[in-house]
Amino acid sequence: MPSSSEPSLDKSGKEITTVGFARFGFDSEVSLDVLRSLYLRAHYVKTVASADEAAKEADRDDASTSYLSKAIYHADTKSISYTTLSRFPPVKLLPPSQRKRILVTGGAGFVGSHLVDRLMVLGHEVTVIDNFFTGSKTTVSHWVGHPNFELVRHDVVEPFMIECDQIYHLACPASPPHYQFNAVKTIKTSFMGTLNMLGLAKRTKARFLITSTSEVYGDPEVHPQPEDYWGHVNPIGPRACYDEGKRVAETLTYGFHRQDGVDVRVARIFNTYGPRMNPFDGRVVSNFIVQALRGEDMTVYGDGKQTRSFQYIHDLIDGLIALMNSDETRPVNIGNGDEFTIGEFAELVRDIVAKVQKEDGVDVPRVNIVYKPMPTDDPQKRRPDTTRAKQVLDWQPRWTVQMGLEEMVRYYKAKMVEGSL
Ligand SMILES: NC(=O)c1ccc[n+]([C@@H]2O[C@H](COP(=O)([O-])OP(=O)(O)OC[C@H]3O[C@@H](n4cnc5c(N)ncnc54)[C@H](O)[C@@H]3O)[C@@H](O)[C@H]2O)c1
């Protein structure tokens, strides 16, 4: 969050107080403060010395802590006790005719948990299925027990039956170290997981949205990449399990659409960052911020001249919800076109970390930026052409990279206070 005196300004200089919008008969607008209360504060961990103090702490309920998972650390026995929430975050009371039953696969992951927060605050019934390979229960723990929410440990490689109106199919590891950890499993998740969820959509007549990726364009020869560019992918390289997995998942999606009339949506997501991103999964934004916050050298792979574009999580969630509720069945790129070289981006992160630390009264030395060899198949350049999203969804990114980075830095700082980073 920007410092308390500074409002969050969008790309046109207007203050951001809400995210989402009413479009295609679906109102996705919610207060930014409510969402921030779910991700930006440190989880509430209180250390107590005695049983008496612990009992008092368990009963304490004030506005600032009541929506947060509460944990009491007993210093004498070196144990931790978790208490249930006294109140859930407020959700809209929708009439049954407007309340949708929504399945989110991979809902305990980075993108999924933000989508779940938004859909829950909007008043819908949300079921998350996740095998917790890269996701974590803690990302959605503030909803567990809520009458509109269900969390199921399930691997999408196995069939799953549920009645629902919409399926957001996100389940798939997304960062290179995670999807390369077990390449065969990644391909199974992409292919069999998508097959199972499309089968479910066919049976229930639910609308199906898959989160595909800009990686389907591979190392592109066209800049920026429009949706009708077919891509340039190495089918046998170390990234192929993910890239080709998503390509075949798209093929399956359109197979079910043409053959069985399944109502499908395909979002091709470009590099997205935000709170709840795993700080150790090797993605460039989290790497840079964590290194700068710890005062370590920041590592740039290659000569730093390769370019990337970075989209903030709230823009992505706006785009996914708009796409789901629109009539667009063709693939739609969702990303932020503001391009940075990785070298420039490292400098930007370094400046923003320094600014936030200064605002918080922390004096830290300026960190160095060091260069290391580039990994195999890392694309040199990628930038979305988002003309289609603008035309058919009336969507375009609102968050500047600077604004998003400040929130991210504050989120990681809160994790450090909590002791989990
Ligand atoms: N974050 C990005 O920049 C980005 C870019 C392009 C596409 N995407 C896509 O968005 C989706 C979400 O990505 P993310 O960044 O949140 O990644 P993530 O790794 O944080 O989340 C993926 C979630 O899916 C779960 N999962 C993985 N395999 C599963 C399986 N077999 N069964 C059930 N659950 C399983 C994980 O436990 C995790 O909770 C993915 O489909 C990814 O390909 C993300």
Your description of this structure?
With 421 residues, this protein is an alpha/beta fold. Strand 12 (207-213), helix 6 and strand 13 form a beta-alpha-beta unit. The strands form 7 sheets. The protein has a 7-stranded parallel beta sheet, sandwiched between helices. The longest helix has 22 residues, at 183-204. It starts with 17 loop residues before the first strand and ends with a helix. The model has no long low-confidence stretch (mean pLDDT 90). The protein has helices at 32-39, 51-59, 110-121, 176-181, 183-204, 240-260, 284-293, 313-325, 342-359, 387-393, 401-418; strands spanning 18-19, 22-23, 26-27, 30-31, 44-48, 70-74, 79-83, 101-105, 125-130, 149-153, 166-169, 207-213, 264-269, 272-273, 298-301, 307-309, 311-312, 331-334, 339-341, 369-372. Bound molecules: nicotinamide-adenine-dinucleotide.
Briefly say what this structure is.
The protein has 421 residues and is of the alpha/beta class. The protein has eleven helices and 20 strands.
